[in-house]
Amino acid sequence: MSHKKIKFFYLPLNRQVIFSLLLTVILVSYGVIEFDNTKSEQAVFNPQPKAYYQGPSDKDQMALAVNVAWGTEYIPQMLEILADEEVAATFFLVGNWVEKFPELVVEIKEAGHELGNHGYRHRHPQKLVEEELIALIKKNEDLIQDNADYKTSLFAPLMVK
After folding, report:
1. Is it true that domain 65-148 has CATH number 3.20.20.370?
2. How far apart are CA 73 and CA 93, in angstroms?
3. Which of 41, 78, 117, 138 is the S-S candidate for 155 at Cβ 3.0 to 4.6 Å?
4. What is the pLDDT of residue 91?
């Protein structure tokens, strides 16, 4: 049995090496941050895409958005609290949830809340081709329309940072 001799290489840490390493870390970090901050908008149902990042600052208002993708245990209590406090919210619904709980979709709508489209299933959009993503958004649009007689005007993208 032969043993291989392990060789260690040492890099002298002079100012030029330290500066080069630091510059590399800064440039890579900047690239990652910029890549993560890229935002794209695409029209699906409306020819003029418009993403809302904040509302008018001259009014004392806020928007309450609820993404609903699984479970039912909190919805009735939320609806009751929102009604007691006279607060309206936008419920962004995932399509496979709409299929499982159509009666809650109707209950949310009848309580006076806005319904929004959150795609058909909670899957990372970068794992889908564009045509599949659009088809899943449209599928949920049709489900909400068919179950609650409601045409959504808002879409909340999945898993966006």
Report:
1. yes
2. 15
3. 117
4. 93
Distance between CA atoms of residues 136 and 94, nearest Å: 10
Is the model's pTM score more than 0.70? no
Residues 40-88 pLDDT 10s: 445 555 555 566 666 777 877 778 888 898 888 889 998 999 999 888 9
Q: Are 156 and 117 in contact (CB under 8 A)?
A: yes
Q: Which distant-in-sequence residues (6+ apart) come within 8 Å of 145 by Cβ?
A: 151, 152
Task: Report pLDDT digits (tens) over 4-31.
Answer: 676 666 656 677 767 776 777 777 776 6
Residue matched to tokens 């929102």: 82
Q: Which residue from 63, 78, 71, 79 is spatially nearest to 97, judged by alpha carbons?
A: 71
Q: pLDDT > 70: what percent of the chain?
A: 68
Domain boundaries, the chain: 11-39, 65-148
Ramachandran quadrant class, 149 (left: phi over 0; alpha: psi -120 to 50; beta: rest): left
Q: Among residues 149, 147, 128, which one has the least CA distance to residue 158?
A: 128
Rounded Cα distance, 92 and 89, in Å: 10
What SS3 state is found at 16?
helix
